[in-house]
Each structure stands twice: as structure tokens, then as C-alpha cells.
Automatic annotation (TrEMBL), chain B:
Positions of transmembrane segments: 12-30, 60-83, 95-113, 140-160, 189-212, 224-250, 262-295
Keywords: Amino-acid transport, Cell membrane, Membrane, Transmembrane, Transmembrane helix, Transport
Superkingdom of origin organism: Bacteria
Topological type in the membrane: Multi-pass membrane protein
Assigned GO CC terms: plasma membrane
GO biological process, one term: amino acid transport
Species for this entry: Caenispirillum salinarum AK4
GO molecular function, one term: transmembrane transporter activity
InterPro entries: ABC_transp_permease, BCAA_transport_permease
Compartments where found: Cell membrane
Annotated family: Belongs to the binding-protein-dependent transport system permease family. LivHM subfamily.
Name of this chain's protein: High-affinity branched-chain amino acid transport system permease protein LivH
UniProt cross-references to PANTHER family, sorted A to Z: ABC TRANSPORTER ATP-BINDING PROTEIN, BRANCHED-CHAIN AMINO ACID TRANSPORT SYSTEM PERMEASE PROTEIN LIVH
Length: 336, 304
């Protein structure tokens, strides 16, 4: 696939621009003495990361998960629990010593998230369509209740990490810009991995199974294994996002796994558009940006946001990506 | 044994609430193939309007009528404005649009009635106890809820199986193009089915109101339980909704009561205490997982 000049320009705008915004905006905020805005952009990067992982299974796998908040919360709790035990100097579950460095907590979050995603994926993939949505929602609610019942870790109140966030390879991460940079780098890394996976035979099998599962089986593939694999990869990445969120907020609670978070992630994916993974970044910019702006006017911003969402779903399909595509060309173009 | 009987009735009462929710969900899904997340908002509407009206007028009966009526009216309204545009869309669009509606309703309720939970009291006439068997006093109101729920479900069963409208509803769930072609006004049928489901959800909200904090967001935990019911019973099947809600209602209620004892017996006191709270809140989801593993399309679902 040779990108001609037009597609190259389009790609720069579609894929490069949102990342550039996320990279420059915090610096600009610092320059105009609005440092309190930095965590807002970091939040966008974290939600973009989680939404991108959902985008991956949704767009090429056709899996509409309304339960990804579970993995988000699991990742957060991997950080919270490890950090609490590291501070208390008490043994963590399984007799492990506490952990308080991102080099441990982030891979651990990925591993735990992916591990739990395997049985969840298997169960949800017993069915398709509306069932899949309901089952992922129900399983995530189970995790939510489980976290609420963890009295050793604050129950409903969660863990307040007043002793500070994780270190990175021993370095303090108290600087907001440093943490933002870490989140951006991980977002870029996940993007690279997911786009490689999409272009690899792995992605082709997923895409094929979405279009016609019986035919893929007839070709000798076992789509279920690929689908569960993709679901686990997605769950692991969302858990990493949750682990980063815990570090941004220095706080974890079952609220990370509230079902509305799953809904928000889906909204981000659709707002951004399904055409390219960058849609997740656009979507996070638009949704969280809109929330911030509306919150300036009223605490009851959801009264406006809700109907706005309905209108977008009913009349503006394709999201930001689709909009950009229409801006750039009158006719339909292959998105490769 | 008396405790068991009492808990059994509590479980049935939860089942009835879930059944009122799940039957609406499953009818709406079966006929319009609409996945309606905002069904919980209708539950909430019923509870709030009932709490408000009965608080203002002092009459529980007026509250009941107003709550159910409001849910019916809101159901008709959102069907006309939003839902009918979603019937032909895929489930993803339906989820997103109804998620938007939930955001709206949950915030609207805060805007109108404030953030403090409201109370919906059991009416005086029904606040006593009655001995179901000698020596086992049981709240009258809970029995009334069970009775009312069963009566409503019987009426629904008669409506679906024994009337002309029901015949159209059943036909619509099999082949909607065909009954449209046969001259049935399919748009009106859809509105009717949706509003009927809304009415049932509102009724569930009013009846269950006294057991819950009437507050913003109260509908979604019930909605998710109703989804579990539908997944267990099989989507689109009323019989499945009945069986599923009994399974969920009884498992949840009895699990919370007896699981600590069972775990203590198996693993000793210490381990049981920590584990029981976690496990009993997860129990119904684990039951759902087992059912799914064995019957992927639910107990009474169509094999797909």
C-alpha cells in the first residue's frame, strides 16, 4: 500500500494531530500558568489508551464489550494494593512483598488484566450480539461488587495513596509533566503494538471471523482462540491504563470499575470513529474536553451530555474520523 | 426452618421485582430487537414519582398510580423521540443512545429532587405483620408485593397468549416484516410494547421503592441483575424470564444468608468471614457463568 500525497497528509492530520495536541497542550498550559490543567490532558491520554484497546477488539473483532471498566479497575487495584503494602511493609497477597515501581506495577497490571480477561472472554464469546454486551456488563459488575467487598483495601472508599504515586525505575514521579510523558509514551507504544497486530495475520483472522466465522473455520482456523487472545490483550492494556489512572489520581476505588466507565469508553471509541485506531485519541479529546467545558457552565453537565450523545448516535455516525475523511475527499476511500 | 421460610419469601419478593423488569426487557428485545439500557431509568422514574406524590399527598395509592403512570408516559415519550429510530440500528448504537438517556435521566433526577435520597414508605394499612405459618410473622407489604407482582405477570401472560394484541405481539417477535405486510400498524404495536415494558419497570420501581434508597442511579444495579436474569433464561422468552428471575432472586437472597455458615463449616471461621462477603455478592454472576458454560443461549433461548 503506497500512500500517495493526499493520504499521507490525511494521515498526518488524522493520526498525528491528536497526539501532537496531547503532547503540546500540557506544555502550553504550564506556559500560561495553568498547571492544574495538566492532569486533565493526562486523563485524556489514559482514557485514549483504554479506549484504543477497546477499539481494537470492537473494530476488527466485532466484540462490543460493555465491561472494560472491570479491567480498568483491576489495573488500578494492582497499583493501589501493591503500593499500600509497600508503604505498610506488610506482605501483599500470595505472600509477595509490596511493590511501588511502575516497572513492576504496570507489567503486573497487564498480566493480571489479561489473565482475568481470558475466562471473561471465553464466557462472553459463548454468544454474540446483545448477549455479549449483557454478559460483559454483568461480569464487570461482579468485579465491581468484589472490589466493594475488599475491606482490607478500603471497601467502598478504596485506597488513598497519600504516600504518593509509584516511582519509575526508582525515580520520583511527583512532577505532573513527567507522569504525562510516561502516559503518552505508553499510549504510543500501545498504538504501535495494536496497529501491528491489526496488520498481522492475527488481525486478519479476527477480521475474517467478524465477517464470516464459519468460513474462517472452514479455512482451518480456530477463530475462538484468536478472539480470546485479542480480548486478553485488550483487557491487559486497559488494566495498564487503570494502573496509570491510579497514579494520576493517587487514589483507587471501586468507582474505577463502575459500569458508566465502560459506557464512557464505548462512547469515546464511537465518537472518534472506527476507521482508525487514532479514533480513540480523538474520542478521548472530544469527550473529556466536552465534559470539562460543560462542567465550567453547570454541575449538571450530564443533562446536556446525555441528549448530545443521543443526537450524535442518531445523526452523526462515523465520529471524528468519519468527519475528517469527509472533509478530505468527496468520495469514499480505502482506510488501510 | 422459620428463618429459611422467611428468606425464601424474601427471595421470591426480589424475584418478582426482577421479573417485572426482565419481562419488559425481554419483550422489547424479542419484538423490536432493542437492547434498552434505559430500562433502569424507567424503574427509577416510577420510584421517584411515587415517593414524591405519596410524600406530597400522603396517599400511597396515589403514589403508586402516579409512579406507574409516569413511567408509562416517559416510556411513550422516549419511544416516540428516540427509540423508534433505533430499532433498525445495530446493538452498539442502541447501547450508546440509551447510555446517553441514562446520563440524562440520572442527572435530571438530581436536578429536580436534589441529591439526598428520598423515602418511599410502606403504606400504613400494609405495614403490619402476618403469620404465614404459626410463629413466623412476615411483613404484609412484602406479601402484597409478591401477590401484586404475580397478578401482573399473570395478566401479562394472558395479554400475550389470550388476546388479539398478544397474538400480534407474538407474531411480531417471529417475523416483523410479515405482520407489517399483513396490515398491522407495526409502529403503533412497537409503541405499545415499549410503553407496556415501561409500565412494568415503573411498577417494579414503586413496589421495590421501600426496600431501596430512592436516589439517582438506583435503576442500573437492578437493570444489570435483570440482564443476568435474561441471560440465564434466554433472551426473548417470557418463560425464561420467570425461571431466570427465580434463580437469581433466590440465589442472591439465600446466598447472602447462608453462604457465611456454609463457608465457615467448610473452611473455618476466619477464612469464611473474609470470603463470604465477596463470594455472596458474586454468587449470581457465577451462577450465570455456569449456565452460560452449559447453555450458551440461556435455558429457554432460541438456539442461534
Amino acid at each position: 500500500m503506497r500512500p500517495d500525497a493526499l493520504t499521507l497528509r490525511r494521515r498526518l492530520i488524522r493520526d498525528g494531530l491528536p497526539m501532537l495536541l496531547l503532547a503540546v497542550a500540557p506544555l502550553a498550559a504550564m506556559a500560561v500558568d495553568a498547571g492544574w490543567l495538566v492532569p486533565v490532558f493526562t486523563r485524556m491520554a489514559v482514557f485514549a489508551l483504554a479506549a484504543m484497546a477497546l477499539h481494537f477488539i470492537l473494530s476488527i473483532g466485532g466484540m462490543v464489550s460493555l465491561g472494560h471498566a472491570a479491567f480498568f479497575a483491576i489495573g488500578g487495584y494492582v497499583v493501589g494494593i501493591g503500593s499500600q503494602h509497600a508503604y505498610d511493609e506488610t506482605p501483599a497477597p500470595l505472600g509477595l512483598p509490596g511493590w511501588n515501581d511502575m516497572l513492576i506495577s504496570l507489567p503486573a497490571a497487564f498480566a493480571v488484566g489479561a489473565l482475568i480477561a481470558v475466562p471473561f472472554g471465553w464466557l462472553s464469546l459463548r454468544t454474540r450480539g446483545a448477549y455479549f454486551i449483557m454478559i460483559t456488563l454483568a461480569l464487570a459488575q461482579m468485579i465491581f461488587y468484589l472490589l466493594v467487598s475488599l475491606r482490607a483495601y478500603g471497601g467502598e472508599d478504596g485506597i488513598s495513596m497519600w504516600w504518593g504515586r509509584n516511582t519509575l525505575a526508582g525515580l520520583e514521579m511527583s512532577d505532573r509533566l513527567a507522569l504525562h510523558a510516561v502516559c503518552l509514551v505508553i499510549l504510543a507504544l500501545a498504538w504501535w503494538v495494536l496497529s501491528r497486530m491489526t496488520a498481522a495475520p492475527f488481525g486478519w483472522v479476527l477480521d475474517g471471523a467478524r465477517q464470516n466465522e464459519a468460513r474462517m473455520r472452514a479455512l482451518g482456523y480456530r477463530p475462538l482462540a484468536y478472539q480470546i487472545g485479542a480480548f486478553a490483550l485488550s483487557g491487559g492494556i486497559v488494566a495498564v491504563a487503570g494502573a496509570l489512572m491510579a497514579n494520576v489520581d493517587e487514589f483507587v476505588s471501586p468507582g474505577l470499575g463502575h459500569w458508566t466507565v465502560s459506557g464512557e469508553l464505548l462512547v469515546i471509541v464511537i465518537l472518534g470513529g472506527l476507521g482508525s485506531l487514532s479514533g480513540a485519541v480523538w474520542g478521548a479529546l472530544v469527550l473529556l474536553g466536552l465534559e470539562e467545558v460543560l462542567m465550567e457552565f453547570t454541575q449538571h453537565w450530564a443533562v446536556i451530555m446525555g441528549p448530545l450523545l443521543v443526537v450524535i448516535v442518531l445523526f452523526a455516525r462515523g465520529g471524528v474520523g468519519g468527519f475528517l475523511d469527509r472533509l478530505n475527499m468527496g468520495k469514499r476511500h480505502d482506510d488501510a | 426452618m422459620l428463618l429459611f421460610l422467611e428468606q425464601l419469601l424474601n427471595g421470591v419478593q426480589l424475584s418478582v421485582t426482577l421479573l417485572l423488569m426482565a419481562s419488559g426487557l425481554t419483550l422489547i428485545f424479542g419484538i423490536m430487537s432493542l437492547l434498552n439500557l434505559a430500562h433502569g431509568s424507567l424503574f427509577m422514574t416510577g420510584a421517584f414519582v411515587a415517593a414524591w406524590v405519596s410524600g406530597e399527598t400522603g396517599s400511597w395509592a396515589l403514589g403508586l398510580l402516579a409512579g406507574a403512570g409516569a413511567a408509562f408516559a416517559v416510556g411513550l415519550l422516549i419511544e416516540t423521540v428516540v427509540m423508534r429510530r433505533l430499532y433498525d440500528r445495530d446493538h452498539l448504537d442502541q447501547v450508546l443512545a440509551t447510555f446517553g438517556l441514562i446520563l440524562f435521566f440520572n442527572e435530571m433526577v438530581r436536578l429536580v429532587w436534589g441529591i439526598r435520597p428520598m423515602r418511599l414508605d410502606v403504606p400504613d394499612a400494609l405495614s403490619g405483620f402476618v403469620e404465614v405459618v404459626p410463629g413466623a410473622p412476615y411483613p404484609v407489604y412484602r406479601l402484597v408485593v409478591i401477590g401484586a407482582g404475580l397478578a401482573v405477570m399473570l395478566a401479562l401472560g394472558w395479554l400475550v397468549r389470550g388476546t388479539r394484541i398478544g397474538m400480534r405481539i407474538r407474531a411480531g417477535s417471529v417475523d416483523r416484516e410479515m405482520i407489517g405486510a399483513l396490515g398491522v400498524d407495526i409502529g403503533r404495536l412497537y409503541s405499545l410494547v415499549f410503553a407496556l415494558g415501561a409500565l412494568l419497570a415503573g411498577l417494579a420501581g414503586v413496589l421495590a421503592g421501600p426496600f431501596l434508597a430512592v436516589q439517582s442511579g438506583m435503576g442500573e444495579p437492578i437493570l444489570i441483575l435483570a440482564f443476568v436474569v435474561v441471560v440465564i433464561g434466554g433472551i426473548g422468552s417470557l418463560k425464561g424470564a420467570v425461571v431466570g428471575s427465580l434463580v437469581v432472586g433466590l440465589t442472591d437472597t439465600l446466598g447472602r444468608v447462608y453462604l457465611p455458615d456454609i463457608l465457615a463449616f467448610l473452611f473455618g471461621e476466619g477464612a469464611a468471614e473474609a470470603g463470604a462477603a465477596a463470594l455472596s455478592s458474586m454468587l449470581i454472576f457465577l451462577v450465570m457463568a455456569v449456565v452460560l458454560a452449559v447453555f450458551p443461549s440461556g435455558l429457554y433461548g432460541r438456539k442461534g
